[in-house]
Design a protein that fits this description.
heterodimer, A: 226 residues, Glutaconate Coenzyme A-transferase, 12 strands, B: alpha/beta, 7 helices, 27% strand
């Protein structure tokens, strides 16, 4: 495996393009939980003609766009503690109901960030495991254990060029065998019984380019030239 | 006559004992009962076990209670925030204990405590380091962890509206842990923006029935925690 010797320059899809790909893969009518950070972009790219219902685990189904600053309400926030709005038809509920929705399999899709993903779908995204780090897990472990389809959005490699798709997660696990698909800036990668399989490669890049930046065997299931 | 109204936050927390377990509602500042927490700081109880989703921001509210050294232990899902160093400093110095619990497991442990269920199985955290020391069992193809219910001596909760029976409604995402903590604490103390006549809350719309609530105190204009943090305020 060849690793880039210097920090990787931005390449492949932008975050917005990744978010558009994720949004295209979510079916009309789905209940969706978006993780804090980059996954929040997905809400901006719902294709015309589709309606998604966004859930935030702190107690709202029917999250709308952010308010203008004059209408921010400290009692109406998302899981990242940022001000949001509620769409007409939204519902508020307490945490036990919110996590019953999650654990009970009532949420169709969640989109999360990742520190590492392994070929069997193992995910590490909550802690570096450093002795000095303050451990904080929030709802990540409940989400990956209960939501029907767990999608990951992430850069393909770390800021120092280390692969995030790895043979075995070395960071503390969030869940075992939970990820369905990874959307990186370089490729869309499925978790399959055969391990990682690239479904789609970012324009201008080759499968070999992706393979060299992946820390585990990866199959080429992409449609070349599409 | 049943009347759970108490005249002041000081009076409402007067009998919290040293070593008590205290559930504190809120998800970040939304639903955090800041006036009740400040009254508890003034009251002086120490050696508390605090059960709350977070550990507060800046040096007000929950962060101020922890900064004052009143909490011996926190049971928490996310003890980190962008603008507080209070908990991290005490934790690194070994001066406060942390029991880290996934957020949904925390909510369900509290719900179970209030519902008379001593323990339950959940798939969350199975196979992770948070499963260490916990009993596990397979149901079908999956592994589940046995999680124990949580109860507490006291809950401090913020709601929107109450009547003299203690019936409650909440405001938007400030509901979060409030209804569960009222169920799980032997003495649930609730600050509300509005106290209304019995009957003014539609029985169809009651979120927490009054039997789960022990004391209600009127705080018509609660402080905005994030504003205090921005201003650099510290309590006391």
């Amino acid at each position: 495996m060849i690793r880039p010797p210097t920090p990787a320059a931005p390449e492949g899809w932008s975050r917005e393009e990744m978010a558009r790909l994720v949004a295209l893969d979510i079916e009309d009518g789905a209940c969706v939980n978006l993780g804090i950070g980059i996954p929040e972009l997905v809400a901006r790219f719902v294709p015309p003609g589709r309606e998604l219902l966004f859930h935030t685990e702190n107690g709202l189904l029917g999250v709308g766009p952010p308010p203008d600053p004059a209408h921010e309400d400290p009692e109406l926030i998302n899981a990242g503690k940022k001000p949001v709005t509620a769409i007409p038809g939204a519902a508020y509920f307490h945490h036990a109901d919110s996590f019953a929705m999650i654990r009970g399999g009532h949420i169709d899709v969640c989109v999360l960030g990742a520190m590492q993903v392994a070929p069997g779908g193992d995910l590490a995204n909550w802690s570096t495991g450093d002795d000095d780090a303050i451990p904080a897990v929030g709802g990540a472990m409940d989400l990956v254990a209960g939501v029907k389809r767990v999608l990951v959005m992430t850069e393909h490699v770390t800021k120092t060029g280390q692969p995030k798709l790895v043979n075995r997660c070395t960071y503390p696990l969030t869940g075992l065998g939970v990820v369905s698909r990874v959307y990186s800036n370089l490729a869309v990668v499925d978790i399959t019984p055969q391990g990682f399989a690239a479904r789609r490669i970012a324009p201008g890049l080759t499968f070999d380019h992706v393979r060299e930046r992946t820390g585990a065997p990866i199959l080429d299931w992409s449609d070349h030239g599409v | 006559m049943i009347d759970k109204r108490i005249t002041s936050v000081e009076e409402a927390v007067r009998d919290v004992r040293d070593g008590a377990s205290v559930m504190i509602g809120g998800f970040g500042e939304a639903g955090s009962p800041i006036e009740l927490i400040h009254a508890l700081i003034d009251q002086g109880a120490r050696g508390l076990t605090v059960i709350s989703n977070n550990t507060g921001s800046g040096r007000v509210g929950l962060a101020a209670l922890i900064a004052a050294g009143r909490a011996a232990k926190v049971v928490c899902s996310y003890p980190r925030s962008a603008n507080s160093t209070v908990f991290p400093e005490l934790y690194r110095a070994g001066r406060i204990d942390l029991e880290l619990v996934p957020q949904g497991t925390l909510a369900e442990r509290i719900r179970a405590g209030g519902a008379g269920i001593p323990a339950f199985y959940t798939p969350a955290a199975a196979g992770t380091r948070l499963a260490q020391g916990k009993e596990s069992r397979r149901f079908g193809e999956r592994e589940y962890l046995l999680e124990l219910a949580l109860t507490a001596d006291v809950a401090l909760v913020r709601a929107e509206r109450a009547d003299r029976y203690g019936n409650l409604t909440f405001s938007k995402t400030a509901r979060n842990f409030g209804p569960l903590m009222c169920m799980a604490a032997r003495c649930a103390i609730v600050q509300v923006r509005h106290i209304v006549d019995a009957g003014a809350i539609d029985p169809e719309a009651v979120v927490t029935p009054g039997l789960f609530v022990s004391r209600v105190v009127h705080v018509p204009a609660p402080a905005h925690e994030s504003r205090l943090v921005r201003e650099g305020a510290a309590y006391p």
